[in-house]
Amino acid sequence: MDIIIAIVVGLIAGWLAGIIMKGSGYGIIGDIILGILGSIIGNWIFGFLGIGSYGILWTIIVAVIGAVVLIYMVRFIRNL
Fold first, then answer.
1. What is the domain count for the chain?
2. Contact 67, 38 (CB under 8 A)
């Protein structure tokens, strides 16, 4: 069941991050991967700051923030 939740959270987070960063989208698989990687990055960032997780909504918010950071980093590296 955890893998299904991770995929759903990843899809939502990747889709929202794509909207926030005003991109053309990455497709359903790309959004899932982006969201899952964003979740990992977001959890690392918030863990470093000492902020824990507080439920599914908070998990989605953290994943979106991590995905936005990931998109920003990828776009920055591409423009070098």
1. 1
2. yes
Characterize 9-31 residue by residue with b for buried, 16 or more Cβ atoms within 10 angstroms of its Cβ, and e for exposed: bbbbbbbbbbeeeeeeebeeeeb
Q: CA nearest 32: which of 48, 46, 15?
A: 15
Q: Quick one: tokens of 64?
A: 């979106």
pTM greater than 0.85: no
**For residue 43, what are the domain limits?**
2-78
- Tens place of pLDDT per residue across the chain (80 aa): 677 887 888 888 888 888 888 766 677 787 788 888 888 888 888 888 888 767 888 888 888 888 888 888 888 888 88
